[in-house]
Amino acid sequence: MPALHASHGGNWLRPANGVTGAVSKGEAIMAAADTPVLLLNAPLVANRLGYPDLSGLDLLELFAFVHPARFCVPTPRGLAQALGIAAPADDNAVPEFLQDAAGALLAACEDREWFERAGAWASLQSLERLRWPWAQVLRPHVARPERAEKWLFATLPEWEETAERPAPRQVELPPTDVLEQLDDLTGEGAEKREGQRAFASEAARIFAPRSAQDVPHLALAQAGTGIGKTLGYLAPASLWARASGGTVWVSTFTKNLQRQLRAESRRAWPVKRPDGTPPVVVRKGRENYLCLLNLEDALQGGFAGRPAVLAHLVARWAAFTRDGDMIGGDLPGWLGTLFRKRGIAALTDQRGECVYAGCPHYRKCFIERAQRDSAQADLVIANHALVMVNAARAGIGGRDQGQRLTRVIFDEGHHVFEAADSTFAATLSGQEAIELRRWIIGPERKNRGRRRGLSARLADIASYDDEGGAAIEDACEAGTLLPSDGWLQRLVENEPAGPIEALLAAVRTVTYARDESGQEAGYGIETETAGLPGEVIEAAGRAAEALAAIRTPLIRLGGRLEAIVADPPDWLDAQGRARIEGARHALGWRVDLIAAWESLLARLGGPADPEFVDWLAVDRSDAREFDVAIHRRWLDPMKPFAKAVLEPAHGVMLTSATLTDRINAESGDKWDSAIARSGAAHVEAEPIMTEAHSPFDYASNAEVLIVTDVKRGDLPGLAGAYARLIEASGGGVLGLFTAIRRLRAVHGRVADRLAREGLPLFAQHVDPIDTGTLVDIFRDDPRASLLGTDALRDGVDVPGHSLRCVVMEAVPWPRPDILHKARRLAAAANGGSASQYDDRIIRARLAQAFGRLIRNRDDRGHFVVLSAAFPSRLLSAFPEGTSVRRVTLDEAIARIEGGLIGEDPARLDQAGEEAGGNVGAQVPDNGP
Ligand code: SF4
């Protein structure tokens, strides 16, 4: 088969039996239209060719069929690694490589030892009916099994119901035992690291028995990069779990750290206990997992065309997955993007429509399994959002109620504040409201798969219990007051239907009317809730009445369900009971949600509540409006966090390499912000504060270059600077931007030029690839560079040579939005100053970005900020000893090219002469 490769450096085509040659974009598109060509990552190739309709035989789809649940970086080099064949030397060699790789994958299907053979033949039959282009190619290579195979849903294992774990025993951990356990985990002969030992001893203190109700042991641990904090806390955690029979939750912000924790936990726990249960479980929100009922629906005609092909490839994966986690688990992150639709999301339980025990797959359900496994686990690895949502909902009949979070370690603890901020927020928006409508009434159009409203989900209750049935009917009728399909268009045309749409239309009008931001179309706009016109207030009143009309029957229904569980009818078996419990839980948090909306509306037009910040917003992206909302945030979200998470817990630790503020000693206490952002002020507990310094030699291995001659707003200059820095470093650059618009402009100007030099450039918001996969690609190719925004500033863990230079386009000032301004004012009113508040945020961002550079002892590199006026007071953001220079772009390039770091006068002079500049001079630190 012919093969096509397109990069920013050009396009290469290899005919079926010919020689590879460079072709124009037009020729490449024509070739692909003529006959199916082999491609790697069709959406990316289409993007490079500027031809969105491109299709062909995508090797990634073939890989997903042949080796589901196997990791593969979606590049020629990554595919070569995954298949154990030679990688192509350059772009010109890629088409031939694609032909070889296709051959290797087809050959794998003929191998008697093909690990993923089960179910392949049957799956191929369905894919052939769907006209999946690979099906015909694969057919001669996939043998029909001798005996008919069971279908997926019959082969998945069932989970077992187990007794609730008893409450943990109260135990004390002797300090010597903790250190011995740490020695065991680090392994024989490992160097004894004093920082790590001290950290482990301090972490052990949160496991001591609590001495007063609502007063947990609270530890704040600043742990410099490289001290080995993961094993530092796993040592006391594993010891305590063994001695007490309790469960420790470790909460992270990034999936990366979850992966690392899973690997490190193997030192303390086996994969399985003798009874087959896992002692360590990764828990995510339910919207991350495959819903088997949705999958069955998709396989049986709920999906058509390309989404149906995706469903079959997901079904292949479902038979081999470790835990059914579709987002960040063992389903390749790139699979969803190959299909361009929201297919993956439609296969998860996004809207809480689970029918629990009413589902035929309930006993095999991945979500139910994860929930049960975590209730029996010694260690649960979760994320901040899930921990907080679980804690917040535990008070309203949460399903995890039996599993109280008594010992919690928040790693990447500097993100706890942001996670609490969004968890405890209230947002009444068009998108949220239509979701509620669909949950109550069901979808409006018939073709929405198995989604059903309340009346279908609880049909048996309605027929058994008259009052329950009436409540369901009333809720469905009141639910019609919520926005319906086409609401946004009606708002734009000023023809809203129903009281909530009318309110949102009024909100939209006033937000536009007051907009003074001068934001170009395409960016979100917002306005305060002060001084709203009468129409908005009146519309809010009518909307609040409508919400109350919806909430009342839902409460009644909840009461009926409770009564049925308390006095169960004969026909209600254990599974039916579980389903009703599930429905009660779902009702409970929706009633709370509606109540939060009502209280939000009640405040509009009244005096502002000093505890909260409210505002109106129109969300826009790429010149398209997508939501209209009324927002409410806590001024200090650590207040509800303290109530929901800290008070019920017995021991909590927040740890991070950037927990404390790198403030100048004379300007204040570095612990102030860590304490304020931990919630410590809202509980009685006296926090235990501990600090372990990084063992890395930053002075010799890292250097900060502040480039002073790239003017702000000069886009060509910015793009040129990025290109030259990437060339100087030979790739390996992580470019961080504060605005997507500038990121795209820079990428558009320099990607082709760099590709021609063999320096691939990838970018978030440009390449049709998910962020996790972009980082995998970057990690895998030392000549690649990656541009991105906030998510990359915090979430990239690329130790080694692949990341050797970080370039920030500017000082990362916080966006002066309404919420930020309110918190800034509050900080000033509390004795600080508004600019100190901003400085702390910037220092934290700089410290986090700098933290990407040096991940292990041997890492070396430059940290570049393009800023003509970098304030000196922010320099303390960088680790002590790191050399900081204010330089011109030419000087920076000379230092990067020469690999010059820190004080090295002889080499500096030499490089300065070569570069024709005064590289050796330490430019005075005279910033504002
Ligand atoms: S139990 Fe719920 S989440 Fe699980 S497969 Fe069934 S419907 Fe989906």
- Poorly predicted spans: 396-402, 905-928
Mean of residue pLDDT values: 89
Largest β sheet strand count, sense and barrel closure: 7 strands, parallel
Taking the alpha carbons of the first and last residues, their distance comes to 63 Å
Instruction: For the largest sheet, list the strands in their spatial order.
Output: 8-9-7-10-15-6-16
Helix fraction bin: 40-55%
Strand content range: 5-15%
**What molecules are bound to this protein?**
iron/sulfur cluster
Q: Tell me how many strands there are.
A: 23
Verbal overview:
The protein is an alpha/beta fold and 928 residues long. It is built from 38 helices and 23 strands. The strands form five sheets. It has a seven-stranded parallel β-sheet, with helices on both faces. The protein has a seven-stranded parallel β-sheet with strand order 19-20-18-21-22-17-23, with helices on both faces. The longest helix is centred in the middle third of the chain and has 33 residues, at 534-566. Residues 396-402 and 905-928 have low confidence and may be disordered. The structure holds iron/sulfur cluster. Iron/sulfur cluster is lined by residues 291-293, 349, 354-356, 359, 361-362, 365, 367-368.
Break the fold down into its secondary structure elements and pairings:
Blueprint: E1 3-7, E2 10-14, E3 21-23, H1 25-34, E4 38-39, H2 42-49, E5 57-58, H3 59-66, H4 76-83, H5 94-110, H6 120-129, H7 133-138, H8 152-155, H9 175-186, H10 194-203, E6 217-223, H11 229-244, E7 248-252, H12 255-265, E8 280-282, H13 292-302, H14 306-318, H15 333-338, H16 343-347, H17 366-376, E9 379-383, H18 384-394, E10 407-410, H19 416-423, E11 426-429, H20 430-441, H21 454-457, H22 459-464, H23 466-479, H24 487-492, H25 498-514, E12 525-528, H26 534-566, H27 574-603, E13 612-621, E14 624-634, H28 638-646, E15 651-656, H29 671-676, E16 688-692, H30 698-701, E17 702-707, H31 715-729, E18 733-736, H32 740-756, E19 761-763, H33 771-780, E20 785-788, H34 790-795, E21 805-808, H35 818-829, H36 834-851, E22 861-866, E23 883-887, H37 889-897, H38 905-915
Parallel strand pairs: 4-5, 6-15, 6-16, 7-9, 7-10, 8-9, 10-15, 17-22, 17-23, 18-20, 18-21, 19-20, 21-22
Antiparallel strand pairs: 1-2, 2-3, 11-14, 12-13, 13-14
The chain binds iron/sulfur cluster (SF4).
Iron/sulfur cluster (SF4) is lined by residues 291-293, 349, 354-356, 359, 361-362, 365, 367-368.
